[in-house]
Amino acid sequence: MNAYDNLVEAINDLKSKGFTQDFNLQQDKIYCPVLKMYYRPKEFKVMEKHRFEGMSSVDDNSVLYAISTKSGVKGLLVDSYGVYSEVSKELLDKLK
Question: Containing H/E element for 80?
């Protein structure tokens, strides 16, 4: 697994490795808007996780997840630290 200097570098490299879809967090699942598909925690695996800390503010902290679904869809989920208050425990455990 690579160590990236910044979020943009990581996204570009992982997209070149086939993680081309974008995922969004929902309460108990992730969502791929392009495919209009939802994936519950048992339907995907986190292949890589990268943390980035912003230079100017704590609000700039983020986590990048490279995700592969059981159906073969590969994509990325970008999330901020500490935004898990609305996320189910099962989904939170999957992303830890």
Answer: strand 74-80
- Assigned domain for 2 exists: no
Q: Using CB atoms within 10 Å of the CB of residue 96, give its burial: 0 to 12 exposed, 13 to 18 middle, 19+ buried.
A: exposed
pLDDT in tens, 51-83: 887 665 555 688 899 999 999 999 999 987 655
1 is a domain residue: no
Please tell me the total count of domains within the chain. 1
- Is 86 exposed, middle or buried (CB count within 10 Å of its CB: 0-12, 13-18, 19+)? exposed
73: its two tokens: 């869809």
Question: pLDDT class for 3, splitting at 50, 70, 90?
Answer: confident
Q: Is residue 18 part of a domain?
A: yes
